[in-house]
């Protein structure tokens, strides 16, 4: 009888039901809040080309390597190169980037010579004292459409080893920063990089990966990045045949060559390919980028990069972008689990108080 009265006329039955629902909502929200993070997957890909690699006829070659030069002191170079990426806003409002990989033709073979078919690549630390990843956000004014540039944020840097790993794969060079690795790889067809316009001049190809970044970015927003290696500085003394750990402005030894590909000829889809890579003012150059006051702003922050579409050894204009792979996971554009939990608890309190009042 009591049950029938509650069902017909006592709102307390509804209060009990609301309490149960709210408890379930709060518990499920709490479970979601405490659940493990998603496994990282590829969220952006401009991979190495698979077609027209090392073609010497010029027009249809898909892979190129370029650098900036400017003296023997790497930190005094006026420019360093990079590119940009924008992550899709189709399913997520933001992403957490866990790792980022780019590619370079940054070293020579053992002994400082160019590579033959079976020559071993010298460890990348023989040429480079530091490898760095820097990122900044580009903002767009909603009214004027004008672009503004955030400060450069150096996410990772460290000195690569002068030897290959003692454990694990034999083609991996570690770093003073354990989150950075350099892996000596080849193109899909098993080739090294053949110099543009110089048949049979081969150089090692490297994949540099920055791991454990946990860097949050907004979907649909442009980010610019630089992966750059700074060669050993030896007081402007050119390298000799016995001392390879210094920059040599006459040979390009110790200069970082990023790997780029032409999306029209690469044989596969390259996300965000604009046909232009970016050259930035070297924001570490203390001669042109020193803060106006100690601890003050770096005047090279906020400076736009120059979009470059270079020419190859045959005079052909090239549409190129830097090869890049990003792993991470998306964050769904819904209220955070903690917010849902608080809302659920609020419903519990409201329903239970309502039940007491109605009694």
Topology:
Blueprint: H1 2-8, H2 12-34, E1 41-46, E2 63-66, E3 79-86, E4 92-104, E5 128-140, E6 147-149, E7 153-158, E8 160-164, E9 172-175, E10 180-185, E11 193-194, E12 202-203, E13 205-210, E14 215-218, E15 222-231, E16 258-261, E17 277-281, H3 286-289, E18 306-308, E19 321-322, E20 324-332, H4 337-358
Antiparallel strand pairs: 1-20, 2-16, 3-15, 3-17, 4-13, 4-14, 4-20, 5-6, 5-7, 5-15, 8-9, 9-10, 10-13, 11-12, 16-19, 17-18
Can you describe what's shown?
The protein is α+β, with helices and mostly antiparallel strands. The chain folds into 2 domains: 1-36 and 335-359; 38-322, no CATH class. Helix content is 16%, strand content 32%. The protein is built from 4 helices and 20 strands. The chain has helices spanning 2-8, 12-34, 286-289, 337-358, and strands at residues 41-46, 63-66, 79-86, 92-104, 128-140, 147-149, 153-158, 160-164, 172-175, 180-185, 193-194, 202-203, 205-210, 215-218, 222-231, 258-261, 277-281, 306-308, 321-322, 324-332. Strands 1, 4, 8, 9, 10, 13, 14 and 20 form an 8-stranded antiparallel beta sheet that branches. Strands 3, 5, 6, 7, 15, 17 and 18 form a 7-stranded antiparallel beta sheet that branches. Helix 2 runs antiparallel to helix 4 (337-358). The protein is globular. It starts with a helix and ends with a helix. The model is unreliable at 1-14 and 23-33 (pLDDT under 50).
């Amino acid at each position: 009888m009591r049950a029938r009265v509650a069902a017909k006329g006592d709102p307390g039955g509804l209060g009990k039901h609301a309490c149960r629902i709210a408890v379930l909502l709060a518990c499920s929200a709490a479970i979601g809040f405490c659940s493990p993070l998603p496994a990282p997957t590829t969220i952006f890909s401009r991979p190495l080309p698979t077609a027209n690699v090392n073609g010497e006829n010029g027009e249809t070659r898909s892979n190129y390597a370029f650098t900036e030069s400017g003296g023997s002191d790497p930190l005094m170079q006026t420019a360093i190169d990079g590119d940009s990426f924008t992550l899709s806003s189709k399913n997520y409002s933001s992403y957490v980037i866990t790792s980022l990989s780019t590619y370079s033709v940054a070293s020579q073979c053992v002994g400082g010579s160019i590579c033959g078919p079976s020559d071993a690549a010298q460890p990348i630390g023989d040429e480079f004292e530091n490898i760095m990843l820097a990122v900044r956000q580009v903002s767009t004014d909603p009214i004027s459409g004008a672009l503004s540039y955030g400060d450069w944020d150096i996410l990772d840097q460290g000195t690569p080893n002068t030897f290959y790993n003692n454990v694990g794969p034999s083609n991996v060079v570690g770093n003073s920063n354990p989150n950075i690795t350099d892996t000596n790889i080849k193109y899909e067809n098993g080739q090294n990089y053949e110099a543009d316009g110089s048949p049979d001049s081969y150089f090692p190809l490297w994949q540099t990966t920055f791991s454990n970044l946990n860097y949050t970015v907004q979907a649909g927003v442009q980010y610019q990045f630089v992966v750059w290696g700074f060669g050993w500085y030896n007081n402007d003394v050119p390298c000799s045949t016995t001392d390879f750990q210094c920059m040599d402005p006459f040979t390009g030894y110790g200069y970082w060559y990023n790997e780029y590909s032409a999306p029209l000829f690469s044989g596969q889809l390259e996300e965000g390919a604009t046909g232009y890579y970016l050259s930035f003012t070297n924001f570490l150059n203390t001669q042109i980028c020193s803060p106006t006051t100690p601890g003050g702003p770096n005047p090279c922050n906020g400076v736009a990069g120059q979009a470059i579409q270079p020419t190859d050894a045959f005079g052909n204009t090239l549409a190129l972008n830097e090869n890049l792979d990003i792993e991470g996971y998306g964050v769904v554009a819904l209220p955070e689990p903690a917010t849902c939990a608080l809302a659920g608890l609020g419903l519990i309190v409201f329903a239970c108080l309502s039940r007491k009042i109605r009694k």
